[in-house]
Amino acid sequence: MITTVDGDGRVNAASFGTCTRVAHAPVTLAFAVGAGKDTYNNVLATGEFVVNIPAFERRQLEQVRIAGLDFAPGVNELDVAGLQTVRSTRVRPPRIASFGRHFECTLLWSRRWRDRLLVVGDVVAASYLPGVANSAGFLFWEQARPAHFCGWGYDDGFVAAFDVEHVALTYDGPEATAGERPIPPPPIGNTAPA
């Protein structure tokens, strides 16, 4: 769920089926939003947004569905869904208190395409609830229990995204080690929402 604020500081929240990391260092996230939506207007007006990641827990997913409805401009979807916020550390949009991970972002670039806006933002701060990540910021998948929203076309389904399968490389050619390099730890700290 992405939170933004408009030019007057009014909070907006929107549910997204796809928000993806597009770079590791610096950590960069991307999503697309429809023209005329509050998120579209707010990101262009302020250059800031927060990606809030819910767990695969029924109540949180119900709240994601409620906040994803098409409310009138100016309606705070978080209030309607019964979600509390906490101040962000580096950007104006708030974080969702009960969601386990938060990525505060500033707009790196955007591009209008058809009736959509592709938004790419740099993560300037991140936080997580105690117990869902280690001190380097790497996720404990089974504790964090991330969920993925399949979208309206899939009967409003969610899938669990925390079943991890480690797959050994069975190829031993020179290419097998040429691309292997450690991923630098993300620039985040263990700062739970206040």
Task: Please tally the helical runs, counting DSSP H or I stretches of 4 or more residues.
Answer: 5
> What does the overall shape look like?
globular
Strand order of the largest sheet: 2-1-5-8-9-4-3
Helix percent band: 10-25%
The CATH architecture:
Roll
Number of strands: 11
Q: Which class best fits the helix and strand makeup?
A: alpha+beta
Low-confidence stretches: none
Here the CATH topology equals Pnp Oxidase, Chain A
Radius of gyration: 17 Å
What does the average pLDDT come to? 85
H-E string: EEEEHEHHEEEEHEEH
Instruction: Please summarize the sheet with the most strands.
Output: 7 strands, antiparallel
Kindly report the name of the CATH homologous superfamily.
Electron Transport, Fmn-binding Protein, Chain A
Distance between the termini: 19 Å
Report on the structure:
There is one protein chain. By secondary structure, this protein is of the alpha+beta class. The chain has one domain (2-178): Pnp Oxidase, Chain A, CATH 2.30.110. It contains five helices and eleven strands, in the order E-E-E-E-H-E-H-H-E-E-E-E-H-E-E-H. It has helices spanning 38-46, 58-67, 77-81, 141-144, 175-178, and strands at residues 2-5, 11-14, 20-23, 28-34, 48-53, 85-86, 95-96, 101-113, 116-128, 147-151, 157-160. The strands form three sheets. A seven-stranded antiparallel beta sheet has the order 2-1-5-8-9-4-3, covered by helices on one side. The protein has a two-stranded antiparallel sheet with strand order 6-7. A hairpin with a 2-residue loop joins strand 8 and strand 9. The longest helix has 10 residues, at 58-67. The chain is globular and about 55 Å long. It starts with a strand and ends in a 16-residue tail after the last helix. The model has no long low-confidence stretch (mean pLDDT 85).
